[in-house]
From TrEMBL:
Signal peptide location: 1-23
Single GO molecular function: serine-type endopeptidase activity
Domain of life where this protein originates: Eukaryota
Subcellular location: Secreted, Extracellular space
The protein, known as: trypsin
Keywords, ordered alphabetically: Digestion, Disulfide bond, Hydrolase, Protease, Secreted, Serine protease, Signal, Zymogen
Catalytic activity: Preferential cleavage: Arg-|-Xaa, Lys-|-Xaa
Pfam families: Trypsin (PF00089)
Amino acid sequence: MSVKLVTFLLLQAAAAFLAGVRSIPQPVNQLLGRQPRINGRIVGGHSINITQAPYQVSLANIHCGGSIISNQWILTAAHCIFGAQPNQIQVRLGSSENVGLNGQLLGIKKIVSHEKYNQTTYDYDFSLLELQEPIEFDETKQAVKLPKQGQEFKDGEMCYASGWGKTDNPLNFSGQLQQVQVPLIKQQECERLLYSLKVTDSMICAGYPQGGKNVCSGDSGGPLVSSDGLLVGVVSWTLIPCNMPNSAGVYGRVSTVREWIREHSGI
Ligand SMILES: *[C@@H]1O[C@H](CO)[C@@H](O)[C@H](O)[C@H]1NC(C)=O
Ligand SMILES: *[C@@H]1O[C@H](CO)[C@@H](O)[C@H](O)[C@H]1NC(C)=O
Ligand SMILES: *[C@@H]1O[C@H](CO)[C@@H](O)[C@H](O)[C@H]1NC(C)=O
C-alpha cells in the first residue's frame, strides 16, 4: 500500500457535529487523506462491567471517553475538546452503559488543553477537565493511578483499552462498555506499521501487526491501562478500518505529561 492511500482516523465519532461542538480537527493533510470517520467500535474486544474499569467515563455529548484521575479531574484527548466550551460537555460516570440516564452526569468547570497540542500531528493530544462537583468514589467510580514522569513501559507488555466507540453495525449496538487487550509496540516498529506516519515522543502505540484488535471511532480520550493499573495512554488515533493489519492504535503517552498534569490540577 502506498502512503497516499493511508487514511487516518481520529478516534472521535463525527456525530459530535450534531451536538454543535466543533471538536474534530478538519482534514489537514490532503496527501495522507487524513479524515475523521464514523466506523467501528473497539474491535475484537468484549463487554465489561464498569466495576472492571471504574476510572472510565463517557463524555456523552461529544462521543469521547476519559479517565478519572482524582475526585475533581478527568484526563481526555485534546482533539475531543477542541473548540468546545465547558458548558457543552457532560461527564457520565459509574455506568457500564452509555445511554439514557444511566450513571451520574456531572458538568465541567474548566478545560485545560495541552499548550503543545498540534492539530496537524496530534502531538500532545491531552486535555484536563475540572468537574463542577467532586466525585463520590464507590465500586463504579475510582481514580486510576498515573505513571511517573518519564516512566518506561516494556514493548510487548499487555495493556487494556476501553470505550463505547460506536459499532459500524447499527443493529448490533449495545451501548455496553467494551475492552480490548493489546500489547505495547515499540516506537520505530509502530511508525513502520503506520506507513511512516510520525509517532512522536508524546505518543505510545499498542496493537497487533496482523490487526483485528484495536480501539476505534468514539473511543478517543479513553484509557489504556497496564496490568498493574497505571494509566499508560489516552486514546488518540489509528488507521481505518480499525481492524485491518498494520492499524496500530496510537495513544497519548501519559508519562510525558505527568508534570504538566501536576502543574495544572495539583494531582
Ligand atoms: C455491574 O456489576 C454490578 C456489581 O456487581 C452489578 O450490580 C450491575 O448490575 C452490573 N451491571 C451490568 C450492566 O452488568
Ligand atoms: C505542528 O506540527 C507541524 C509538523 O511538525 C509543524 O509544521 C507545525 O508548525 C506545528 N504547528 C504548531 C501550531 O505548532
Ligand atoms: C454482535 O457483536 C457480538 C460481540 O461484539 C458478536 O459476537 C456478534 O457476532 C455480533 N453480531 C452481529 C450480527 O454482527
